[in-house]
Amino acid sequence: MTGPIRIANASGFYGDRAAALAEALEGDVDVVTGDYLAELTMMILALDRLKSPDRGHARTFLRQLEGALGPALDSGTRIVTNAGGLNPAGLADSVRELADRLGLACSVAHVEGDDLTGRADDLGLDSPLAVNAYLGAFGIAAALGAGADVVVTGRVTDASLVVGPAAAHFGWTATDHDALAGAVVAGHVIECGAQATGGNFSFFTEIADLVHPGFPIAEVHADGSSVITKHPGTGGAVTVDTVTAQLLYEIGPARYAGPDVTARFDTVALAPDGPDRVRISGVRGEPPPPDLKVGVNSIGGYRNEVTFVLTGLDIEAKAELVKAQMAPVLPSGVRWTLARTDHPDADTEEAASALLHCVVRSADRDEVGRRFSSAAVELALASYPGFHATSPPTEASPYGRFTSIAVPAGSVDHVVVLDDGTRLTIDAPAETLALAEVPAPDPPPAPDAGTTRRAPIGRVVGARSGDKGGSANVGVWARTDAAYAWMVHELTVERLRELLPEAADLPVARHVLPNLRAVNFVIDGILGEGVAANVRFDPQAKALGEWLRSRVVDVPEALIGREART
User: Fold this and answer.
1) Angstrom distance (rounded) from CA 471 to CA 524
2) What pTM did the predictor assign?
């Protein structure tokens, strides 16, 4: 087909807006996708599967689908979702049961083969809870080509939910690298739902209606170019800035590798295409790497925590006293954080108080269980004046660890199971290309700073950050050429470490994306063993970019917006 395919998103994570699926069907779309699988979600589903082998999928999807399946079938809208998690066959059967109960004729297919947990020993892994390869889009495409109304997958790349329908619609093959890469970029933009329409957006105060933002739609064309939009009359906004922000979310180098294609993010071009419409074009693609990423979720140990409230005077001394009193019972895995939320001469007790967080981790459950909890509670009448905690510590709880490995793509069975039980095997790409670093482009000439003033850097630039295992990315973009020319010289790796002291001793890589007027930093190890380990105040690094934007630097007067003058 030559006309564009309109692909809507109705879920960006497990727990997203329940009504979004029904909302997506209120307009003209060909496919509705639902992304439920983050790294943390796979751990949640793995623990759920331990309780019963029938579990392991996103159960909220069925509740969303109950009122939406009929309208979707009536309109001919296909539904593609990775809500199958660790049990795509089980969810597919549940969808069939739902359709039967509703009296609907519905063809359901599922994609499997990503679950490598049974190969853990061969892969040198020590008793993981879940091991899942990131599959590509052509299983989804095959299912849609065979007539499926609903396609359920396990672990596929997030963008595959969009690439698969586009490939089926246009008949793309594995060597259509530019088209596939363009669809990957479109998929990356809409995969996180309302983050493309103003959610989690640095300049959110500029959006007139953000109370109930609409979910995004990608109109994908035969050459892989696309237009990002949303249903008319829904809240939020689709602008070059909102799309740029999402493009920078949870990425690494300019080469964005996937199982089907490597998309060159340094070739992405954005342009307005009317109200709430942004065109994406120019994306170049390269053959994918020969290996697939494999996510490994396991139990990392046990954790506990307590937050002491320090009020009034001598905050630092109070904190040191508690640390000394707790020291005899603390394991080696301890993290203290003092949040100076207190204000001098405060007019409320809460405003006069700081928070001292203590997080402990150990392979020994007893070490961070009753022993730790009892020690904290026993200080109640024997510590600093005003002693109390936000809540008593509880029993030790297990925490997860996420790591990733790589396996040859040809060693993974990528299988589509159609509604009648027919099994189709999807071949791994015959043409591959090992990843290589993109040479850093020459920056524009450093501008003459002229008169400067102290101001938050966020008065000039936007940012979007997120987690990737134990690492985090911070993508920073400028809205004008002049601001970019200043930013690309100002925000070096060394300067980032100064502005974010938590990264001072960590490996930091910088990737420059001139087409987006952006730089992307990847900070290795800032999240420890990943979000499931939960050792950091912001365990998914969602606000790391906003922290950076709040740091005060010398900004050229000519770049400071009206906001900074108020």
Assistant:
1) 4
2) 0.94
